[in-house]
Amino acid sequence: MIGFLRGRLALKQPPALMVDVNGVGYELEAPMSTFYVLPSVGEQVALFTHLVVREDAHILFGFGTDGERRLFRGLLKVSGVGPKIALGILSGSSVEDFLRIVEAEDTAMLTRIPGIGRKTAERVIIEMRDSVQKLAVPASAVDGAAPPAASPLSPQGEAFAALVSLGYKPPEAARLLKAADEPGLSTTELIRRALKSAAKA
Fold it and tell me: Per residue in 175-195, pLDDT tens?
């Protein structure tokens, strides 16, 4: 099992990224909570990882902190929750926010995440209730996190692609970005504002 990667950030296109480790490019998928703290392309990065093995693919997921990875692994144990939904939950809330959602039994907040219906939200809260205390352990990072940097490509285009890959339908993604857009915003800030807007809807 690959526990973590340390190398040069070669690609950053939410939710996908690539880390060059001694000339080998590792493709990963990561939640937006991790993208918010990624350094610029070309700089050093270190990530905790989790490998999901399927019949048709091996998919490596990356996380900025061990707390994010623990939450991801906990969510995968919930019936009806796969990697895509788990990434959606981590993209729409921090580990601390998720703990508050479970403690408050706020199913309405979870159902705002694409792919989560009321029954799945109720299962997540019931099955995660006993493990939230373990998740509350202070998150540790593999490496110091640097502030996010704007991509050389269109921030609006990258933000739109990221929202669609997280499960939002194109018209909904466009609406959320239109409400969040301001001149000069980076891709990660656009996505952060769009997800905040979706949570309040």
Answer: 888 787 777 788 888 888 888
